[in-house]
Amino acid sequence: MLGGIEKADKPAAGAKLNAVKSAINSAFEGAQQNLAGGDDSGSDPTFDPTLPGTRPSLGHIHPITQTISHLTEIMGRMGFEVAEGPEVEDPWHNFVALNIPEDHPARDPLDNFYLATAKDPSGKSSVSAGDEGSQLLRSQTSTVQIRVMKEVQPPIRIISLGRVYRPDAPDATHFPMFHQMEGLLVDTNVTMANLKTVLRVFANNYLGEDVEIRFRPSFFPFTEPSVEVDFLWNGTWIEFGGAGMIDPNVFAAVGYDPEKVSGFAFGLGVERLCMRRHGITDIRDLYSGDLRFLKQF
Amino acid sequence: MLVSWKWLSRYVDLTLPHDELVDRLSLSGLNHEGSETVDGDVVIDLEVTSNRGDCLGHIGVAREIAALTEQKLKIPAIEYQESGAAIDESLAVENKMPEACPRYTARVIRGVKVGDSPEWLQESLKSVGIGVVNNVVDVTNYVMMECGQPLHAFDLAKVGDGKIVVRSGKDKEQLEAIDHRHYDLNDSTCVIADSSDALAVAGVMGGASSEVTEATTDIVLEAAEFVPLSVRRTARRLKLHSPSSFRFERRVDPVGIDWASRRACQLITEIAGGSVAPGVIDTAPEIPARETVLLRPKRVAALLGLEIETAELDKILRSLGCEVSAFADGLQCVPPSWRHDLTREVDLIEEVARIHGYDKISENSPIPVAPSSKRRFDTAMERIRGVLTAAGISESMTPSVVTEKLDQMISPWTELPALQTRTSMLEGARTLRRSLIPSLLQSRAANWASASLIADLFEIAHVYLPAPAGSDIALLPDETYHIGLIAGEDFFALKGTIETLCDRLGVPGELAVAPVQRDGFAKGGAVELSLVGDDGKESLRLGFLGFVDDKLVKKWKLTGRVVAAELSADVLVNQSRLVPQQQAVSPFPSIQRDLNLVLPESVRWNELAELVRKAAKERLADLTYRETYRNEKVDGPDKKRVLFSMELQSQTETLSGGDADSIIDKLVTSCEKQLSAVLLR
């Protein structure tokens, strides 16, 4: 065997061969001894099965991703498919088509991340009140609903998940970037009772069989009637999101006849669901990239 | 919106206990935020949505309670006497800015005695957190908190030439407001002025010069309508938000303007004496009639999934102030002047739903079954996360908007300047990132700094590549999912992870690499990754892989070397074959041959592998690189030894040693010729 090896390498090769030989011998002896009954107690005293196992080093999937997968799966069972759209949007998709008129406070430049225009590439000019840009980071995932409705005809059953942006000062429960899950169902004869049922089934799936749901009236430009959705969890009503029946103006913007079709939409905060489920108390941890946090999931 | 229990009781009997009342209010649209007991009165904090300006006064809230508890609302009757010279003798109004002030009304009260307000008035204002000033100002505030219409009283003696002018602010014009701070006015500010000077910021705050004081005897009482957008912009610009601006931003009741003016006249003359000058100045006395809205009971049922009797619909709408008349096809409703939000049938449906109660809507009304399928993209992403976590890499999520400095560290995809937001998101961050690598590098550094953790991370998120210059301004940026990766030391470990990723996704063909120079990557240490296109020829750019520039590594105070990669998720998914197809396993034995070649340093493994594939063709079952070593003394300079193994096998017959030898001979010959290789035997 050593014949095929360079002269210079021969001593090293020889040493390796000897090491292998002695390892085989000792293993053979060990096995022989074990078969013969080993020592008096009948077991190998050097074998400590209580030593910790050698674990493979695995990475962790972000809790928001886990939440999104879970939500997608639950909604998928109810026939909702995932749709996505861009995060940089134009005001038509983010506001106009969603029945948010120009004088609506939601369009205020200080409440949105408008992009700097080409005229001012530095983006460093001060924001003057009332001066909208031609593009902005979307403030809601409802933009995706508009894009889908512009493209296909009912029936539609989709959820859109993704990042949205609002200028909130960061604290334990606020972050200027967060995720929303928006659901949309458009068909003939869709009722608010259907909406309540879908959300109740969702809550029972995600939070537990005993969770109750209630609607509180609210106001969103793109739905009418509009409601806040509360879930009764551990004895307290907790607000999880908004919902409502699609406003006829939204149907008009995408070319549907509100006399022929009806539909509902709902939006739930993914972070809130994720934090409740995993006992996370500070939203900022989610976006810290801190491995001490990430490896717990 | 704070409302006092005592105050509400002036308009409606509060028959429900507190807890039940606030619950009913929450469930019908006025969300209960909390309650407090102040001097024996209960003060309730209610959240009023922006479409319900009518509930920004006690009467509005009382109306809701009356509707919920089926009672009649008691609105105070207004009585006072007018006397003295007509208003025109003392005051003229000119409206030069009707786009911001569609209507301005004024009344004059002469001979008031300004002093302290009576106790009931002081108590009422204090209970809802409004400061007490003097009897005239207190009445204007009381009426505002009663019906939601802001009012303002000027000292007539301070209104120059007895003339009120509604106009835009002038260049460099300033106003000292009643808070004694100076505010800059401009041409978008709606200003209430006299013949020369500004007296008030319209709808936002009055000025110090014309405020009502102990010395005042004659007053001008303003009741107007200012446009929400104008008021909001001014309030925002001046950072001056007042109970007035809050109400104008949510629109006031056009009929209520005159009611509020007369109500204030009544209370002022009752409390502070004086007499109301006959007449009113009103720049737009015509109030357009509300259009009739048809409510079809069938539509109510169709939208809510709940039958509500027509009589009940009728009752609810009337209780909210609608004029209702029944027709064959439904109820014809004229919404009340204070409800700007009721213009369509669907708006009325919401009204009946919330008063009737959303709890009556069924939660057992399932939607029909519909098939749904998982997107290919999501299946692929799940598989990618599986491979990456199995490789010990953890998923991170970092903000999409970063500082310009961070974004510029590594931007392998584009040199076009990044998009910027106008307002910063976090600590000066306003750049829409063009790559995920800088954020991951930052996270890796933060982990090392805070806990000495070596963080191997990945992130799957959008990057925003600006549209090329000269393109349509309305064009959205090229925004797609990328997979960013960061790990330590071993270039080949990360490359292997990417190869495994491709393998697991069923990407056909080899992952090709080509050296590339990019700022932020080490010189000569980065490659562009590409995949073979569907036509078998075109090369598709998958992404980049390389050592991070040592300067950057040092800047981040990281130790050792850092390897980063970023892949286009779209390219990867497009080339994936997510459903594996079985390949026949040969029943014939295979032959393994190891070869050790001395090669010039410049020869790359892929050139050698190509020759192996050419020589062995379909009989190559496997090719494994073993190792490279260098021995300059024996082989001479710029030479290396590359050891590799080939597994040869046929699908149709048992391969003989002779067959294998002839393949090897062919290979060695071509290596000698094309790569100047020497076989070590």
Automatic annotation (TrEMBL), chain B:
Location(s), subcellular: Cytoplasm
Binding locations of Mg(2+): D341, D347, E350, E351
UniProt similarity note: Belongs to the phenylalanyl-tRNA synthetase beta subunit family. Type 1 subfamily.
Quaternary assembly: Tetramer of two alpha and two beta subunits.
GO cellular component, one term: phenylalanine-tRNA ligase complex
Keyword Nucleotide-binding in annotation: yes
Gene label: pheT
UniProt catalytic activity: tRNA(Phe) + L-phenylalanine + ATP = L-phenylalanyl-tRNA(Phe) + AMP + diphosphate + H(+)
PANTHER family found in the cross-reference section: PHENYLALANINE--TRNA LIGASE BETA SUBUNIT (PTHR10947:SF0), PHENYLALANYL-TRNA SYNTHETASE BETA CHAIN AND LEUCINE-RICH REPEAT-CONTAINING PROTEIN 47 (PTHR10947)
Enzyme Commission code: 6.1.1.20
Signal peptide: none
GO-annotated molecular function: ATP binding; magnesium ion binding; phenylalanine-tRNA ligase activity; RNA binding
Organism: Rhodopirellula europaea 6C
The protein's name in its UniProt record: Phenylalanine--tRNA ligase beta subunit
Cofactor binding, per record: Binds 2 magnesium ions per tetramer.
Ranges of residues in domain B5: 288-363
